[in-house]
Design a protein that fits this description.
Blueprint: H1 9-14, H2 62-84, H3 88-101, H4 103-117, H5 125-129
Helix pairs in contact: 2-3, 2-4
Bound molecules: zinc ion.
Zinc ion is lined by residues 18, 20-21, 24, 45, 47-48, 50, 127.
């Protein structure tokens, strides 16, 4: 039975779905793909055909969002540091380990947010309905 309601924008962002149809997967592999292909994306949405890299170098902008994420986590880390006062090298080591371990997730969400929030691609009910008719 076809869905009667399109997925919400938040669910589409959390699940890395196309910003236009909110259905097609953006990434080819999982975030912890053993061959390091965590940023490999479909060129076009497998559901509606929307091109993801809308202009050359578009995803360079995700670097700024990724930087904001990393800074935000650092501020959270500082709150934890000033609450529990661990040895400074423990804090630095734990923060670096955290940043390295969450790097694939951080970068993927940065790209997904860039496409959903900072690109001219808007949700289209027609694009969502494409492929639902069968
Ligand atoms: Zn799509």
């Amino acid at each position: 039975m076809p869905q009667t309601k399109p997925p919400g924008a938040f669910a589409a962002i959390v699940n890395h779905r196309c910003p236009r149809c909110r259905t097609g997967q953006m990434y080819l592999y999982g975030p912890y793909d053993l061959k390091g292909r965590f940023l490999a994306m479909h060129k076009n949405c497998p559901h509606c055909g929307q091109e993801f890299e809308i202009e050359p170098g578009f995803f360079w902008g995700a670097m700024y969002i990724s930087y904001a994420f990393t800074t935000g986590w650092f501020l959270v880390g500082l709150v934890i540091y000033f609450t529990y006062w661990p040895p400074v090298w423990t804090f630095i080591g734990a923060y670096l380990a955290f940043v390295l371990l969450t790097l694939p997730i951080n970068n993927r969400y940065a790209r997904t947010l860039l496409l959903h929030v900072f690109s001219p691609i808007k949700f289209s009910r027609e694009a969502w309905l494409k492929g639902q008719a069968a």
